[in-house]
Amino acid sequence: MSQSLIRKFKTVALIGAGSLTMAACATVPGSNVPAGSPITQAEAQQGAQYHEQFVAEFGGEMTGPQAQYVQQVGQNIAVQSGLATTPGAFDVTLLNSSVNNAFAVPGGYVYATRQLVNLMNNEAELAAVLGHEVGHVAARHSARRQANAQRNQLLGVGGAILSSILLGGNSPVGQQLSQAALQGSQLLTLSYSRNQELEADQLGIQYLNSAGYDPRAMASLLQSLAMQNQLDAQLQGRDNATIPEWASTHPDPASRVQSAMQMAGNATGVTNRDTFLSRIDGMIYGDDPQQGVIEGRQFIHPTLRLSFTAPQGYYMVNGTRAVSVNGDGGRAQLTTGQSTGNLDSYVRSVFTALGGQQTQIAPASVQTTTVNGIPAAYGTARVNNGQQQVDVTVFAYDFGGGQTYHFQSITPAGQAGTFNSLYQSMRRLSAQEAGSVVPRRIDIVQAGGGDSIATLSRRMAYTDGQEARFRVLNGLTSGEQVVPGQRYKIVVQSN
After folding, report:
1. Residues whose CB falls within 8 Å of the CB of residue 455, separated by 6 or more in sequence, listed in order
2. Which of 78, 208, 301, 366 meets the CB 3.0–4.6 Å disulfide criterion with 292?
3. Is 401 left (phi over 0), alpha (psi -120 to 50) or beta?
């Protein structure tokens, strides 16, 4: 949960409905522009309008040599699309996010997270991802889906903030709990259909060919993403290996690997593996301590000086808006809101925000308590989602200095106690504890004659899944071994 979003949430408990008025009512730029046409002035204005919002929502913009390298590769592949004639017409941003994500929006704005870049194994894969996203823009996929969504009036309810973050997108509960509209930035990154994904893959491969890269890089990158999804599921104890996906806007990459291989055919090109590995050496891997880190079931935020522990069997996702806790028995998220100076009124204000303008949600009562020395208050409301009764709980903490945090959770009716251990685990971090949290980073090492998967895996800065993590990080399938003299990525703890 980033500092920029902490500041943002001091003004509103949840993002409200008024933020999309202009975008939702206006004609969607690009919706009537033929695929492959150059960027229009209207598209450029739309991209510029939401650029800062995208950067804020995905952890902020990275700077320095690594960001410059991603920008260079991205601009080079983007110009192959014909959307513009000069690389400088494209704004390529490396985002400080621990989520595997990439996207591009009208106007020549292209984004990739450092976590996704860390998963890649050569420059051709980096170009493939960015080329795929530019392909969506060139084909005007986003614009057409925006127009369809507006015509179908899907955005007012189905994309509510509570629905998309707390309930996972399409929950009827979320639709009833909040009537808040999607922000304009989310309009630009609506889910693509399978056919649109395949078309973007095809365009990305076309751009790889024209730029001289190995077009098979698209398939190898998709394979790594599929492996990462499966590993995440295993480490988190989930059966569903397709969540989280490569950006929630993308279908499961595993289903597209073979198609990408067939599209690439027998063509060859450069991969620039050694150059790529040298340029990402030292990049932060996983959570940035300034945004909080997840260690097993524990969330630790050294800057905000707080920590809590998820219940057994639940997994966490550290987003820029909130930290979510997910499991079969319910979902919860920790975020913050504008302090009212009174926990009772704060809790009630969160319920009001969750309900929106058309649905009133209020707790039967608000109870006050103390959790590990922190003043707290909580309340639960029962809601009918049209199919069943559910319990919505808000549990807030006053950390002093005008800073208030709260969990908001949803469980089946009568099971609000599912997250009691979560609520009771909230505590302050000592200065010593906060100072001991350091980031993990990518370290490029060369395999020696006596090295193996086992020896290199033992150098990974994790207590679990070392070999599986090493294989996925380096795109190695279960039957592949390390090659002496070749360079590989490991993850180490910063000093």
Report:
1. none
2. 301
3. left
Using the predicted structure, report yes or no on whether residue 22 has a pLDDT greater than 70: no
Nearest to 17 by CA among 213, 162, 191: 162
Pair 250, 200: CB distance under 8 Å = no
Instruction: Quote the CA–CA distance of 269 and 203 in Å, as a whole number.
Output: 16
Average pLDDT, the chain: 82
**Closest CA relative to residue 218, chosen from 340, 131, 276:** 131
Give the percent of the chain with pLDDT over 70: 79
Domains in the chain, CATH or no CATH each? 3-284 (no CATH), 289-435 (3.40.1000.10), 440-493 (3.10.350)
Alpha carbon distance 259, 126 (integer Å):
19
Amino acid in position 257: V
CA dihedral sign of residues 244, 248, 254, 260 = negative
pLDDT, residue 160, reads 28
* Mean pLDDT to the nearest integer, 19-32: 36
Q: For residue 105, what pLDDT is reported?
A: 85
Query: Are the C-beta atoms of residues 117 and 210 closer than 8 Å to each other?
Result: no
What is the number of other CB atoms lying within 10 angstroms of the CB of residue 54? 20
Q: 88: closest CA among 96, 78, 98? A: 78
Which residue bears the tokens 């260079």?
72
d(CA 203, CA 206): 5
> How many residues would you count in the chain?
495
Alpha carbons 328 and 403: distance in angstroms, whole number? 31
C-alpha–C-alpha distance, residues 156 and 179, integer Å: 6
**For residue 6, what are the β-bridge partners?**
none
* β-sheet bridge partners, residue 102: 112
Quick: pLDDT tens for 194-244: 888 889 989 999 999 999 999 999 999 989 998 998 898 888 877 655 444
Residue 183: count of CB within 10 angstroms of its CB: 19
